[in-house]
Amino acid sequence: VPGGLAYQAVRNFVLGDYTEAIGFSVQVTVVAGAIAAGLMLSEVFNHSIRAFRERKERI
Predict the structure, then answer these.
(1) Digit-coded pLDDT (tens) for 23-42
(2) How far is CA 13 from the centre of its chain?
(3) How far separated are the first and last CA of the chain, in Å rounded?
(4) CB count, 10 Å around CB of 14?
C-alpha cells in the first residue's frame, strides 16, 4: 500500500518542494498501478484455470 509515499508526496507539496513531491507522486502511481495490475492478472489466471478444469471435467 503506497500510503507512506502518498504522505511524503502531500507533505512535500505543502512544504513547497514540488520536485520531490512529483517524484513521490510518480512512485505512488506506479505502486498503485502495479497493485491493480496484479489483481487483474490474478483474476485472469483464476478464470483461465477454472475454465480449463471445467472443460477437463466434461471430457
Answers:
(1) 999 999 999 999 999 999 99
(2) 23
(3) 43
(4) 9
